[in-house]
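User: I'm curious whether this sequence folds into something compact or stays loose and floppy. Could you predict its structure so I can see for myself?
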Amino acid sequence: MHTNPAFRTATRDENLAFARQRGFGILMLNGADGPLASHIPFVLAEDGMFAELHLTRSNPIARAAHGPALLAVSGPDAYISPDWYGLEDQVPTWNYVSVHLRGTLSEMDIDLMKGHVDALSAVHENRLLPKQPWHSDKMSEGTLPRMMRMILPFRLTIGSVEGTWKLNQNKPDEARAKAADALSAQPDAGAQAIAALMRRKTD
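Assistant: Here's the prediction. I'll summarize afterward.
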């Protein structure tokens, strides 16, 4: 992860709140034949001590899922043109937000599978309100247990939290504001999200 102190000012709580809101990341660990990675949704505990997730039984990580692991959670990102700063001798860069959750991955009791699935869906269904939330009780009898036999529940016990919020904090406020204005004019949603974060950090 980027080591520039200017981009590492977010608190543990801010980084965890970001990861919790995203709820999706890349789980990585070392396998017998090298690095393994899988894109997964997860539920982060309120105290930030662990994240719960699931993997298909056929996923290589599910067969190697014991020991040190990293869950990388990425947010919006955007290219920054040096022309936007209004300063001389600048170079292109990329602004982004990312949080790394490091810890120990272990398999959960299979009897906890349904509770995990219900908790995961509840988090994201509640974000769709006023849509009537979907819940597993809507499924035909026997269907969910049959489908759940294809997946396994896991817990990442979190040992450290690192966050990089690279938002041009190393530039003068006026230059940052100009870059944020230019980003706001772009059609890309990621660029507009980064612009909003740049302004928020400036304020």
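Summary: The chain has a mean pLDDT of 93. Residues 113-126 form the longest helix (14 residues).
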